[in-house]
Amino acid sequence: MASFEEHCRDCERLLGNRFENVNHWLDEKFRQFGPLHRFARHHWRGVDECGHMWGEGARKAAIIHILKDCGWVPSARDWEERKVDALGFKVSRPFGIGDTAELVSVFNGFWDPHDFVKAAQELIDAD
């Protein structure tokens, strides 16, 4: 799980601004829910809310933050339909047999720094 400082450094490196307000806001629910807080704002709706509150740069900062934490940016519907695990990792590989099979994450929560910068740049350029 990335620290507040790591999120701010990522934003500064990619956008030239730490966007502390965005990074605080996205993780604000951590105090209430702990590591399971991501369901509240770590999705495209949360990205849109950041854009409405603080502008286009903040929207891009939210994308960077969520990508670092979840390995992608899920939709709010992905959370509702349990297409992500409790940490927001995409689930798609069945583990187990038959009715007892569980979906397991395809992202382990850790990024190679070069791969992260490349993925983040592609995602914010496409947005």
Summarize the structure.
The chain is mainly α. The chain has one domain (4-126). The protein is 54% helix and 7% strand.
Walk me through the structure.
The chain is mainly alpha-helical and 127 residues long. The chain has one domain. The chain contains seven helices and two strands, in the order ααααααββα. The protein has helices spanning 4-15, 20-27, 30-33, 44-54, 56-70, 76-80, 113-126; strands at residues 91-95, 102-105. The chain has a two-stranded antiparallel ribbon. A hairpin with a 6-residue loop joins β1 and β2 (102-105). The chain is globular, with a radius of gyration of 15 Å. The two termini are 24 Å apart.
Question: Features of this protein?
Answer:
mainly alpha, two-stranded antiparallel ribbon, 7 helices, single chain, 7% strand, 127 residues
Largest sheet: 2 strands, antiparallel
Order of helices and strands: HHHHHHEEH
- Shape summary: globular
Query: How many H/I helical runs?
Result: 7
Strand content: 5-15%
Structural class: mainly alpha
Mean pLDDT: 87
Terminal residue distance: 24 Å
Give a count of the beta strands, DSSP E runs of length 2 or more: 2
The percent of residues in helical segments reads 40-55%
Strand order of the largest sheet: 1-2
Indicate the radius of gyration in whole angstroms. Answer: 15 Å
Which parts are unreliable, with pLDDT below 50 for 5 consecutive residues or more? none
What is the domain total for the residues?
Answer: 1
